[in-house]
Amino acid sequence: MKQHVSLEAASSVHTMVEIKKFGLRDKLGYLFGDFGNDFFFILVSSFLMVYYTDIFGISAVTVGMLFLVARLWDALADVTWGRFLDSRKAGKHGKFKPWIFRMSFPLVISGVLMFVKIPGMSDGFYLAYAFVSYLIWGTLYSTVNISYGSMASVITSDPVERTTLSTFRTMGGSLASLIINVAGPLILFVDNKADASRFTLGAVIFGILSISCYMACYKLSTERIVTPEIKDRKSHLGQTLKGLLRNKPLLAILTASLIFMMCNMLLGAVNVYLFKDFFGHAAVLSLVGFIQIGTVFIAIPLAKPLVAKFGKKETASVGMLIAGLVYTLLYFLPHLSSISFIAISAIGMFGYAFFNLVVWAFVTDVIDYHEYVTGLREDGTVYSVYSFSRKVGQAIAGGIGGVALTAVGYDATHKVQTQSALDGIHTIATLVPGIVFLVVFIILVFFYPLTKQQSKQLTIDLTNKRQNPS
């Protein structure tokens, strides 16, 4: 049954229009959005570096610089697209989801082309092709991902329902990660070596799955909160910037997410070399991917009751502390077998799974806080600023990953790496994430101000402010 409720927006920040009651349809739609996103995002983050180094023959340090430049460009594209979205008027199907439909097709096509190798070309051609195709894919990814991420705050205004959306989003990404990390190594590698034709085949398969998920997201999701078009964006730019700087929860979660994403990207890229070279068994990456997703699904039923009892900040903080301690411990156990290493690291994966499960609920709280301090509802802008920090983290991770691998002596032309290079890869995959996870724990505990009680109070205060605008 459809319900129609309209609130005058003459003196209010936004207009709310109830189209359908929030329910399972919305949750599944939002799940499919990140399902579609992560088919290529995880494929790129986990395997693009080894594709460039082992198939295109590009040095690891050059790949790192390519990732750094492209990701910084993507970060700017995020903010530009977010501001563009906030200047648009909501149409028949909403403000954000039509752009998911429009841009997902060119995004998937560019993703497939990124993994196509034209035989017999020069090294310079492969470098140029890698840079251009990656840059185009990243820019198109911004148009879809910012639209998708901004949509969460207009699907529902209820904090509990938003937390559910965050959980379903993580489930969608986790399902894609399960498929990529379990099936990926089996498809992409032949006799423990990256294979060009297999990478192209994998990209086509994942591309078809990706576009199918985007269409499901578009069909099942419903935007309920309609924000009026702000025509004079320039006059509000100063107010927006001041609000962002005054938004302490935003600044804290930006910092935490930046370094967390940096660590995850670095870990995903280096794990390929860790198991391919240090442990000498690339196929075991499938087991790593399976266990990583398994820890997320174990954490899912625990997340909601823990957040309800202790709060998002508190639950995520403890998880990061566990992860930091486990990965630091692994550094001091260099002689473990690959199976023992995976078993212990699973505890750390379980710890940081809680951060991943609630992080998008953090973002919707931050968007609400921005409205509270500025009087402006700017979902696209605030989400794009958050995404900007994640892209910067990805850029840094890509740059550091290539530089670090080169620094420890990794050479793709060697069939067997030196012992010092192997030891260096082990350090990058254990001690570095251990330290980073502990830093995220400190940021959440001491710098993120929205405890469980303060989050509840923010919802009450914002509701009162909307009903009684000054």
Automatic annotation (TrEMBL):
Q: Which UniProt keywords apply?
A: Membrane, Transmembrane, Transmembrane helix
Asked whether the UniProt record includes Protease among its keywords, one would answer no
Q: Which residue spans traverse the membrane?
A: 28-49, 55-73, 99-120, 126-148, 168-190, 196-217, 250-275, 281-303, 315-333, 339-363, 395-413, 425-448
Q: What is this protein called?
A: Glycoside-pentoside-hexuronide (GPH):cation symporter
Superkingdom of origin organism: Bacteria
Q: Does the keyword Transmembrane apply?
A: yes
Tell me the lineage of the source organism: Bacteria, Bacillati, Bacillota, Bacilli, Bacillales
